[in-house]
Amino acid sequence: MTEPRTAGSVRVMVVDDHPMWRDAVARDLAEAGYDVVATAGDGPEAVRRAGAVRPGVLVLDLNLPGLPGAEVCRRLVAAEPSLRVLVLSASGEHEDVLEAVKSGATGYLLKSAAREELVEAVRRTAAGDAVFTPGLAGLVLGEYRRLAAGPGAAETSGVRDVPRLTERETQVLRLVAKGLSYRQIAERLVISHRTVQNHVQNTLGKLQLHNRVELVRYAIERGLDGD
User: For every one of its 227 residues, what pLDDT tens digit does the chain have, with 9 covering 90 and above?
Assistant: First the structure.
C-alpha cells in the first residue's frame, strides 16, 4: 500500500537534554531519510526553535531543564494544533504517560525501543497514528473510558449535539476508538490508507478536534468503542 508521505517530506525536531542521546536520535532519523530541521536541549529553547522552524513531528523527552516536556508539548500544540508530538522517554510511569497525552502528545515511546521502532514510530506519528510502546495504549484507552464513566458523563454522551457524520466516517471513528492504526483500519474496511486519513481529517474538522488522541476520547465518551 502506498504511504501517504515519504520520510524526506517529514520535518522533525528532536528535544532531549542529553547531547549524546539527542545527537544519536537526530542522526538515526536523518539516516532514515527524515528532514531533521532542529534540535534543542531544554524546554525554553525547544519552544523558541519549534516556533521558528515549524516541524511536523516533535520527538520530545519529558525530563527537560527550564520547562517540563509536558508543558513544552502543551504550549506548542496550542500554538500549532497540527503539530504531532512523539514523546521519547525513559519513564514508563502511568502518570507520565497520561500527563503527556493530556498535554497533546499523539504518541509515547520508551527509550528502550530499538532504532527501527523509533524510525517506524516517527513515520506512523507523521501519518496521524497514535503510537504507543506496547502496553501503554491500553493504559491510555482505559483512562479515557474511566473519565467517560465519571461524573458528568451522561451530559457529554448525548447525541443531540453530535455533528452529522457519514456512515463511513462513523465506521472509521469506531475503529479509531478501538485503538486500530490507520493501516489496520484500511485493511479492515478494504480502503486505502489515504482514504482513511481523509475520513479522519474530515471528522476532526466536523467535530472541531485537533488530533487523533482527542478523537479517541470523543468516541469513547460517546460509547463508540464498543462492539
Answer: 334 456 668 999 999 999 999 999 999 999 999 999 999 999 999 999 999 999 999 999 999 999 999 999 999 998 998 899 999 999 888 888 888 888 889 889 999 889 999 999 999 999 888 888 877 766 666 666 665 555 544 444 433 345 678 888 888 888 887 778 888 898 999 998 888 888 888 888 888 777 777 787 788 777 776 65
pTM above 0.70, yes or no: no
Residue carrying the nine cell digits 512523539: 86
Cell 497514535, residue? 130
Nearest-10 crossing angle of helices 94-102, 69-79? 20
Query: 55 with 122, same domain?
Result: yes
- Whether residues 199 and 130 share a domain: the answer is no
Which residues span the domain enclosing 188?
Answer: 157-221
Q: How many domains does the chain have?
A: 2
